[in-house]
Amino acid sequence: MNELTELERMCAEVEPASPQALALGRNRLLAATRTSTTRTPRRWPRLAVTGALALTMAAGLIAVNVTGETPSEPSAVAAAAVLDRAAEAAEASPDPTPRDDQFVYVKEARWSGAPGATPHARTDERWESVDGSHAGLRIENGKRVVIPPPKPGEYHMAPIRYIELRTLPTDPDELLAHMRKLTGNGSDKEVAMYLAGLLSNPVLPSDLRPAAYRALAEVPGTRVLQDVPDVTDRRGLGIAWEPVSELGGSEMVLILDPHTFAYLGTRHTYVEDAGRDGVAKGDKIVDWAAQLAAGVTDTAGAQP
Amino acid sequence: MTTGWSVETERICDAAIIERSRHEPDRFADLYDRHAEEIHRYVTRRLGRETADDITAETFLAAFRHRDRYDLTCDDARPWLYGMATNLIGKHRRAEVRFFRAIARTGVDPAIGSIAEEVTERVGAQSIRRQLADALARLNAGQRDVLLLVAAGGLDQEQVAAALGIAVGTVHSRLHRARKKMREALGGVNPTDPAQREGNR
């Protein structure tokens, strides 16, 4: 038995990746492919930002057969009106403002997996330190996992910390310009996805949520879908981008409560290639999320 | 350019997937489906499972962002992907050394699944594992990269050279030195083994 054989054995014993980890990684990749354009590849530092946002967005996605949904006329006017109502609603009942020593809490049902798989939502709860100085907590399937506080200078990924969200502009035009810059002057769809990712945060700084809705209303190519289910089958209004092209593609939908316009969740659908007849082969949800509760707590593990 | 898309999907080479993904970005997921598990295994061996989840995802994000630079004459994207993963692992160098030192100290290998461990645990395996882990922690980063790309990634020396962007001769000498150190670490495990005698000359 030589040293290389022994080492190979030690390598072969490694436990394979869990299906969940592989699915999550795949969704992160798809979130990136869906926001990409064919511009020059970015360098590493940008990648970190993109990865974080991509994960935030992937965290709020989905996929289901959408054929039953009312496709509705692509209507920029309707989308702008819905988003304006959402902004007003967010102003009328603003997100709570946490102190630095508190925690942002969210309870979420989510499913993510391979296109075409049967969705089965899992519920988890998370507490994240507002200023990043404390360990956070995640409870998933009754299992408690401590989220260690980031070390200074540590490379860390999403979710975006609350303290970082405070630095974003709260004027809609400035926010839109900021997001466009963040995407490297990316496509309208990419900007929209960044804004949708921002809106999927459970608690946003004062004025940022209405600003994000208003900024979103300015992005061309937005349309409204009726009666879109979230992963817990709550029905809402869908704000969608990237209509299906004959080459296939993907669609991200932000789901809002049809009465209160509150954020319900997101859904990400992968649309397979159209055949020569131009008919898409099928729509498959790959990531689907519903936000069930959100708030601010004094300690990790406490309910708001 | 000919990409071979007329053939069955499973026969399409990596280069064709990457080329197509330049215009249809979602196609890059095909490359993920093909290689993510393998890359994950490699990273798990070096940094443990949790870090491997992140680094594997980031490897493919990085690869996706760099897909325009991929040399389409290389049918097999594995060396390229292993190179990306190795770069990312390099940012966790101290964590990796700590990881192997902990295995050397405790004999417990967090990278191994508990079921696999029960089934495959051999008499003396834990002792060998500790010696190997200790030796891995002592290699310099360049030697460890080469050795683990061979042992965990299954790459040949030319593929390792491509993955790391170094000369094949450099791979050869690093591998030689790394293996020598591993042999020394295992010294006395099986003195009758011809490969080992050769190594102990």
TrEMBL record, chain A:
Q: Sorted alphabetically, which InterPro entries does this protein's record hold?
A: CU044_5270-like
Matching NCBIfam families, A to Z? CU044_5270_fam
Q: What is this protein called?
A: CU044_5270 family protein
Question: What lineage is on file?
Answer: Bacteria, Bacillati, Actinomycetota, Actinomycetes, Streptosporangiales
UniProtKB/TrEMBL annotation, chain B:
RNA polymerase sigma factor 70 region 4 type domain boundaries: 130-182
CDD domains listed in its UniProt record: Sigma70_r4 (cd06171)
**Name of the featured protein:** RNA polymerase sigma factor
Supply the source organism's classification.
Answer: Bacteria, Bacillati, Actinomycetota, Actinomycetes, Streptosporangiales
Family (UniProt): Belongs to the sigma-70 factor family. ECF subfamily.
Q: List the keywords (alphabetical).
A: Sigma factor, Transcription, Transcription regulation
InterPro entries, per this entry? RNA_pol_sigma-70-like (IPR039425), RNA_pol_sigma-70_dom (IPR014284), RNA_pol_sigma70_r2 (IPR007627), RNA_pol_sigma70_r4_t2 (IPR013249), RNA_pol_sigma_r2 (IPR013325), RNA_pol_sigma_r3/r4-like (IPR013324), WH-like_DNA-bd_sf (IPR036388)
According to its UniProt entry, this protein's organism is: Streptosporangium longisporum
Which residue intervals define the domain RNA polymerase sigma-70 region in the entry?
31-97
Cite the residue spans of the region called Disordered.
182-201
Task: Work out whether the entry's keyword set contains Transcription regulation.
Answer: yes
